[in-house]
C-alpha cells in the first residue's frame, strides 16, 4: 500500500463510521423540503456559502443540513483527504496505476517555489517553457514570426484531441474578449476529415500556423490530421521547407515530434506528470497564449494558483473545492443522483460543460479502488449542460418536472464584458435579464410551486397538477465579479480539485484513463481490416461483421 493512503481510505468505504452515519442520516434529510430548511433558518442563504479566489459559492439550495455537512466533512477526514491533498502538492506518485505524480499545480507555481519530482525541482523547467512560449506568442502576435513566403500569420489551427483540445478550445472561447482581433483560432480534433476540411477551407496557408498538440504524439486522430494539414500546407505553398514556418508542436515526446518533421526548436515541452485533461495551463495552452498574449495567460495562471493555495490551506469546512466535491458525493451516493448539470449563464463559457465532461468523467468514471477491488458504490456522475438561457428552452422542463434528480451548478458573473444596453442606473439591462433568469431558475428548482399556489392563481383545477412544481431540486450557484483570465483559471482549478476530492472519497485513481485504451486498440485493428478492401474474412461478432461488410460494399459502389 502507498504510504499516503490512510488505513481508513483503503478499508471498504461503505463500512467507515462516517459513511454509515450518512446512510442513517440521509432518510431524515430526504423527508425534508428545501422550503422547510429555509423557513427554519432565515440566514441559511447567507450561512451556507463560501468564498475564495474571486468566487462566491452558495450551496444553501443543496439538500443538506448542518448535520449533513458535519458528517461529510468527517467522511473527508476519514478518507484521509488532508494527507492526500498534501501528497498531490508535494509531487508524490498519487497516480498509482501509472506510477506518476499528478502535478498540474506545479504548472502555476510562482518562480522560486520548489517542487521535486525524482529529486529534481520542476518549477524552473516550467518557467523556462513559459518564457519560450511567451517569446513565440509575442513573435506571432507582433508579426515578427513570418510564414514561409514572408506573410504575417493571421490564423492559428490547433490540432489535438481530448485534453489537447478541450482545454484550449474552452479557454479560447471563454477569453475571446481578451484575444487579439486580427488573429483567428480554430480547433481541429475529430478524425472525420470534415473537421480539417472545414477549418481550412477559407484559409490561406501562407498566413496559417498549425499547432500540433499531443502529449504522447502517438494519438491516431491527431497524427492523421497533422499529416493531412501538412499535405494541405505543402500543396498550397509548393515547398516542403514551408513546414518549418507553419508547424510547431506541443508534446512530451521529442522523438515523435522530430519524426513528424518538426524541429526541436519548434517544440514546446511538458511532462508526464501532467495529465492530458489537466494540461490547459501547460504548453498545451499555446494557442490560447498566442490569442490572448503572455500577460493575460500569466494572469490566468495566477487565478489557478490562487485557488490551489485556497484548496491547500483553507479549513475543509470553508474549502470551495472540498465542499463542491463532497456535495457531489452526497448527491450521488445518498440522494441517488446519476447526473450533474453545469449551467453557465455566460455565452463565453459555452464549451465549459464539454471541458468538464472529460475532466470529471475521465477522472472518476472508474469502478476499481486503488487497492484493486471493485467499488461497492456509485462513482462519477454523468456531467452535461449548456449555457443558460438556451438550456431553459430545451431540457429545463426535465430539471423542473422530470423524474430523475439532477443537481445543477449555476455559474454567472455580475458584470458583462459586452454592455449593449446600459440602463438609467448604469447597469446593463440585457445582462440583468440574463442573470435574473439564472437566479429565478435556482429559486424555482428549490421551492417549486405548490398545487395550492397554482389553484390560488386561478388555474383550471384539471390542469393545475400539471402546472405545479414539486421543487426540492438541489443546486449550487457560483458567482464572480467578471469573467477574466484570473477568474477562469480559478474556476478551472476549483473543478479540478473538486474532482480530486471526489476521487479521494471514492478511493479511486482520478489520474489514469485505462478505459479509453480498449477502444483505441480495437479501432486500430478494425481500421486495418477496412483498408484491406478485399480481405475475405472478418472474425468479429455477427453484428460488427455485418456492419463492416455493408460499409465495404456501399463504399465500393460509391463513385
Ligand atoms: O495528448 P494526447 O497524447 O494526444 O492524448 C489525447 C487524449 O487521448 C486519450 O483520449 C486520453 O484518454 C486523453 O486523456 C487524452 O487527452
From TrEMBL:
GO molecular function annotation: carbohydrate derivative binding; glucose-6-phosphate isomerase activity; monosaccharide binding
Organism ancestry: Bacteria, Pseudomonadati, Pseudomonadota, Betaproteobacteria, Burkholderiales
Source species of the chain: Simplicispira suum
Localization: Cytoplasm
Keyword Aminoacyl-tRNA synthetase on entry: no
Enzyme Commission numbers on file: 5.3.1.9
Protein name per its UniProtKB record: Glucose-6-phosphate isomerase
Function recorded in the entry: Catalyzes the reversible isomerization of glucose-6-phosphate to fructose-6-phosphate.
Principal place of residence: cytoplasm
Gene3D superfamilies: 1.10.1390.10, Glucose-6-phosphate isomerase like protein, domain 1 (3.40.50.10490)
Sequence similarity: Belongs to the GPI family.
The entry's keywords: Cytoplasm, Gluconeogenesis, Glycolysis, Isomerase
GO cellular component labels: cytosol
Residues of the active site: 362, 393, 520
CDD domains: SIS_PGI_1 (cd05015), SIS_PGI_2 (cd05016)
Catalytic activity: alpha-D-glucose 6-phosphate = beta-D-fructose 6-phosphate
Gene Ontology BP terms: gluconeogenesis; glucose 6-phosphate metabolic process; glycolytic process
Pathway: Carbohydrate biosynthesis; gluconeogenesis; Carbohydrate degradation; glycolysis; D-glyceraldehyde 3-phosphate and glycerone phosphate from D-glucose: step 2/4
Amino acid at each position: 500500500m502507498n504510504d499516503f493512503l490512510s488505513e481508513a481510505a483503503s478499508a471498504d468505504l461503505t463500512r467507515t463510521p462516517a459513511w454509515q452515519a450518512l446512510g442513517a442520516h440521509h432518510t431524515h434529510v430526504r423527508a425534508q423540503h428545501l422550503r422547510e430548511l429555509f423557513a427554519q433558518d432565515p440566514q441559511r442563504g447567507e450561512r451556507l456559502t463560501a468564498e475564495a479566489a474571486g468566487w462566491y459559492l452558495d450551496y444553501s439550495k443543496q439538500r443538506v443540513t448542518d448535520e449533513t455537512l458535519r458528517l461529510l466533512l468527517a467522511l473527508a477526514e476519514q478518507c484521509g483527504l488532508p494527507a492526500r491533498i498534501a501528497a498531490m502538492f508535494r509531487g508524490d506518485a498519487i497516480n498509482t496505476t501509472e506510477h506518476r505524480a499528478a502535478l498540474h499545480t506545479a504548472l502555476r507555481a510562482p518562480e522560486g517555489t520548489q517542487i521535486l519530482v525524482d529529486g529534481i525541482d520542476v518549477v524552473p523547467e516550467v518557467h523556462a517553457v513559459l518564457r519560450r512560449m511567451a517569446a513565440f506568442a509575442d513573435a506571432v502576435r507582433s508579426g515578427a514570426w513570418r510564414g514561409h513566403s514572408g506573410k504575417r500569420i493571421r490564423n492559428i489551427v490547433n490540432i489535438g484531441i481530448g485534453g489537447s483540445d478541450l482545454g484550449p478550445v474552452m479557454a479560447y472561447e471563454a477569453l475571446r474578449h481578451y484575444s487579439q482581433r486580427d488573429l483567428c483560432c480554430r480547433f481541429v480534433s475529430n478524425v472525420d476529415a470534415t473537421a480539417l476540411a472545414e477549418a481550412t477551407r477559407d484559409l490561406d496557408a501562407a498566413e496559417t500556423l498549425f499547432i500540433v498538440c499531443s502529449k504522447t504524439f502517438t494519438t491516431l486522430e491527431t497524427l492523421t490530421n497533422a499529416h493531412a494539414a501538412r499535405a494541405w500546407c505543402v500543396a498550397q505553398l509548393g515547398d516542403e521547407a514551408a513546414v518549418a514556418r507553419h508547424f510547431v508542436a506541443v508534446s512530451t515526446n521529442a522523438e515523435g515530434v522530430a519524426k513528424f518533421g518538426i524541429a526541436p526548436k519548434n517544440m514546446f515541452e511538458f511532462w508526464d506528470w501532467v495529465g492530458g485533461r489537466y494540461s490547459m495551463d501547460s504548453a498545451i495552452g499555446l494557442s490560447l497564449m498566442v490569442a490572448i498574449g503572455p500577460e493575460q495567460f500569466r494572469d490566468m495562471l495566477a487565478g489557478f494558483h490562487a485557488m490551489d493555495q485556497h484548496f491547500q490551506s483553507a479549513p475543509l469546512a470553508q474549502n470551495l473545492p472540498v465542499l463542491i466535491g463532497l456535495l457531489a458525493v452526497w448527491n450521488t451516493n445518498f440522494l441517488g443522483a446519476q447526473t450533474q448539470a453545469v449551467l453557465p449563464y455566460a455565452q463565453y463559457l459555452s464549451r465549459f460543460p464539454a471541458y468538464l465532461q472529460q475532466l470529471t468523467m475521465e477522472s472518476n468514471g472508474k469502478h476499481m479502488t486503488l487497492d484493486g477491488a471493485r467499488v461497492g458504490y456509485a462513482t462519477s456522475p454523468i456531467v452535461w449542460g449548456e449555457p443558460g438561457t438556451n438550456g431553459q428552452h430545451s431540457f429545463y422542463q426535465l430539471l423542473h418536472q422530470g423524474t430523475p434528480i439532477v443537481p445543477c451548478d449555476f455559474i454567472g458573473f455580475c458584470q458583462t464584458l459586452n454592455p449593449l444596453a446600459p440602463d438609467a442606473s448604469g447597469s446593463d439591462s440585457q445582462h440583468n435579464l440574463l442573470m435574473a433568469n439564472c437566479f429565478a431558475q435556482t429559486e424555482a428548482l428549490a421551492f417549486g410551486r405548490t398545487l395550492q399556489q397554482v389553484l390560488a392563481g386561478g388555474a383550471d383545477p384539471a390542469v393545475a397538477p400539471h402546472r405545479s412544481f414539486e421543487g426540492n431540486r438541489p443546486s449550487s450557484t457560483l458567482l464572480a465579479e467578471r469573467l477574466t483570465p484570473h477568474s477562469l483559471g480559478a474556476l478551472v482549478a476549483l473543478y479540478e480539485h473538486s474532482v480530486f476530492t471526489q476521487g479521494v472519497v471514492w478511493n479511486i485513481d482520478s489520474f489514469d484513463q485505462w478505459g479509453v485504451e480498449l477502444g483505441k486498440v480495437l479501432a486500430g485493428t478494425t481500421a486495418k481490416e477496412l483498408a484491406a478492401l478485399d480481405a475475405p474474412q472478418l472474425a468479429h461478432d455477427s453484428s460488427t461483421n455485418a456492419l463492416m461488410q455493408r460499409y465495404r460494399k456501399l463504399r465500393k459502389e460509391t463513385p
